[in-house]
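Suppose a colleague, Dr. K., hands you the sequence of a protein chain of 275 amino acids and asks what its three-dimensional shape might be. Before reaching for any lab equipment, you can write down a predicted structure in token form. Begin with the sequence itself:
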Amino acid sequence: MNVPFAPVSAVIPCYRCAGTIDRAVRSIANQTLRPVELILVDDQSGDAARGALEKVKASLGPDWIKLVARDRNGGPGAARNTGWEAATQPYLAFLDADDAWHPRKIELQYQFMRRNPEVALCGHRSRRTRGLEPEQVESLSAAAEEISASALLRGNRFVTPSVMLRRDLPLRFAEDRRHMEDHLLWLQIAFAGYRVVRLDAELAFLYKAPFGEGGLSADLWRMEAAELDNYKRLFRAGSIGALATLALWTWSLAKFARRLAYFLVPALRNRLDPK
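The predicted structure, expressed as tokens, is then:
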């Protein structure tokens, strides 16, 4: 069966992903409108990942899949930038190696981007799941909501596997960061004056915990420190003022305290009362 293609480059950064990469790649191969190319970026895993990537490429399309190896580990942002530079299509879509896409993700998102060429970044809703395979989704609405820079300041509205953007954007993921570098890029795009939208459809399935497996306090603090740094970078770039930066730091630290209590209080209670 001949599957139609969309002028999209899909990019998956891979680090120690041997156990999940097949599911991620197959969710792209099974799209109703398949990306012209899939770029797998090996971020110097140092495990069985390279063999798994080679196997996936051989089984699902050696001419369709590009395998790019980085010479040193740089984290997901650097790996996505490597895939970005290797891409040939006018649109990019990102997927993490341990997540998956709904079969109609590219079809619905690309059709929206094609109808609205002034949109620079389009995201959509996602669903966290502990199941082995993607779940059924009731709503595939293509209704779009405009996302302002101020709305993005209040929180990250897009997980990376939900994002499709124009390849010609002059901005990139921060390579000196391993947390919240995606949110920083969305903010920089919005504050640069580009149009950002969100589709009201669940088109990505996320299999990892939102703050690291187990919700460890160290993970929570690294995420918090990265969010505070995002605001500092925007302040230094002149995107937000000093008072706004202070208010955002205060608000962010309050959110962090609530998250920390949510994860640590039950653990402390269980330790004090193991029954």
